[in-house]
Specification:
Largest sheet: 3 strands, antiparallel
Distance between the termini: 134 Å
Shape: rod-shaped
Low-confidence stretches: none
Mean pLDDT: 92
Helix content: over 70%
Number of strands: 3
Structural class: mainly alpha
Number of helices: 2
């Protein structure tokens, strides 16, 4: 019960226009249409087949299918963007951690250097005091 090639082209063009108008999307190549007898109504109805081979009875099912496919794509794109942001964040956090550790190391080294200088000065003062005390004892 196939109305012919011209009817198939007309039906696909109509679906293409509906998809563009209602979903702001251009229908991909590879869609086909045929007419099959409905088991419930006994009438010949349009059956669209998407590029993956999914059969969809009538314009309503086809539009719903395209809408669902677009939503799945949108969510997949959002997931990819989120994963990219998470990777970028992890990289920034690692860089920040490395910089912070480097700063802490420099501060620790400066502190240790100051402590070493103080200890040297204290040792030098103690030696000077011991020499002075020795000098005083010798003079007595």
């Amino acid at each position: 019960a196939h109305p012919g090639e011209a009817a198939a082209k007309k039906a696909l063009d109509a679906l293409r226009r509906k998809v563009e108008t209602k979903l702001d999307h251009e229908l991909e190549d590879g869609w086909t249409v045929d007419w099959k007898t409905s088991a419930t109504s006994g009438k010949s109805e349009k059956v669209y087949t998407d590029p993956e081979g999914v059969e969809l009875w009538g314009d309503g099912q086809a539009l719903t299918h395209v809408k669902s496919m677009l939503e799945a794509r949108r969510l997949a794109d959002k997931r990819k963007a989120l994963e990219a942001m998470q990777a970028e964040l992890a990289l920034e956090e690692a860089k920040f951690q490395a910089e912070r550790e480097e700063e802490e190391r420099k501060i620790r080294e400066q502190f240790e250097e100051e402590e070493r200088k103080i200890a040297e000065m204290e040792r030098a003062n103690a030696e000077a005091a011991a020499r002075a005390a020795e000098e005083i004892r010798r003079r007595e």
